[in-house]
């Protein structure tokens, strides 16, 4: 068995003559690259600041101890990490003459991006489940969504994300690169890598769509069904109860649409490229993690009040 594994690794190394890739980036125009550097840098710093404020506020506040904010803590953490997988390199490459990334760094970026992206999907599902129990099963809420249960659900989300990302890496490692090493993108992902492989990538692309695409579509449909059930059950609540529930669910639904729209666009289609792919990827990896904290703070009075008290006391 060890001999077979060693032989397979040796064959892959001999067939793979590429040790680094060249990232084309968003544009080749020097002036536009300077603008991209400034814009992406500001967006990235705002993303880190916004998610950092939410993480610290939830961790230090005595009033944000419900399961909804427990999950929001991990969503903000996943947002910050997800943005960090691509934004720093895009910022540096915007002012660099040599936009190269090593083979190992490229594979690491693929793993990290899929890990934190999948983590965000699972946390959004947990947040929808929390709202479903709170609105449709209020008498059983404290029992079903206990602290222990919430902790187990988050652990399962981490494990599921790791399994998903680990399934992507073998597919990427099996790709032999023996020709061009120029990636027409600003980051490493399986879709642009498939175009450079010296083999028929139909099966691997099918696996990609089955894995990432299925997770996106099934999760999105599951979330839509949960919100339909929640809206249907609100007919029996008071006017004030409906208003509060709708306010919370609206924030969640906006985040779901903003995140899953680009995700479904990128991972549920044949291996073709479109001119808007890069901009969709920027919005997906940098724009959405920035908008999430804004949506949850601007539309949530409890978070705003807790943030105001926490930071005013610190200052």
TrEMBL record:
Limits of the G-protein coupled receptors family 1 profile domain: 50-296
Domain of life: Eukaryota
InterPro entries, per database record: GPCR_Rhodpsn, GPCR_Rhodpsn_7TM, Olfact_rcpt, Olfactory_Receptors
Membrane-related topology note: Multi-pass membrane protein
A GO molecular-function descriptor: G protein-coupled receptor activity
Keywords, sorted A to Z: Cell membrane, G-protein coupled receptor, Membrane, Olfaction, Receptor, Sensory transduction, Transducer, Transmembrane, Transmembrane helix
Gene3D superfamilies: Rhodopsin 7-helix transmembrane proteins
Database matches in SUPFAM superfamilies: Family A G protein-coupled receptor-like (SSF81321)
Entry GO terms, CC: plasma membrane
Any Pfam family: 7tm_4
Keyword Cytoplasm: no
Family: Belongs to the G-protein coupled receptor 1 family.
Record's protein name: Olfactory receptor
């Amino acid at each position: 068995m060890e001999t077979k594994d060693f032989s397979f690794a040796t064959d892959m190394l001999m067939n793979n003559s590429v040790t680094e890739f060249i990232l084309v980036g968003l544009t080749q125009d020097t002036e536009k690259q300077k603008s991209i550097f400034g814009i992406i840098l500001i967006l990235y710093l705002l993303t880190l600041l916004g998610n950092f404020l939410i993480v610290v506020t939830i961790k230090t506040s005595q009033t944000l101890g419900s399961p909804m904010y427990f999950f929001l803590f991990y969503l903000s953490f996943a947002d910050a990490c997800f943005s960090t997988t691509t934004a720093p390199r895009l910022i540096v490459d915007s002012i660099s003459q040599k936009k190269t990334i090593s083979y190992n760094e490229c594979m690491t970026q693929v793993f990290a991006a899929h890990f934190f992206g999948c983590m965000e999907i699972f946390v959004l599902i947990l947040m929808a489940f929390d709202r479903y129990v709170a609105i449709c099963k209020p008498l059983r809420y404290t029992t079903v969504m206990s602290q222990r249960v919430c902790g187990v659900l988050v652990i399962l989300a981490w494990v599921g994300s790791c399994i998903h990302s680990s399934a992507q890496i073998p597919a990427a490692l099996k790709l032999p690169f023996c020709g061009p090493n120029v990636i027409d993108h600003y980051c490493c992902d399986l879709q642009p890598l498939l175009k450079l492989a010296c083999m028929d990538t139909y099966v691997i692309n099918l696996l990609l769509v089955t894995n990432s695409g299925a997770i996106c579509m099934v999760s999105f449909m599951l979330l839509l069904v949960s919100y339909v059930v929640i809206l249907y059950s609100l007919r029996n609540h008071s006017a004030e109860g409906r208003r509060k529930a709708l306010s919370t669910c609206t924030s969640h639904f906006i985040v779901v649409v903003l995140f899953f729209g680009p995700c479904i666009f990128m991972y549920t289609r044949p291996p073709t490229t479109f001119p808007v792919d890069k901009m969709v990827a920027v919005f997906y990896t940098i724009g959405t993690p920035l908008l999430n904290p804004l949506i949850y703070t601007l539309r949530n009075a409890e978070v705003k009040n807790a943030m105001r008290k926490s930071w005013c006391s610190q200052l």
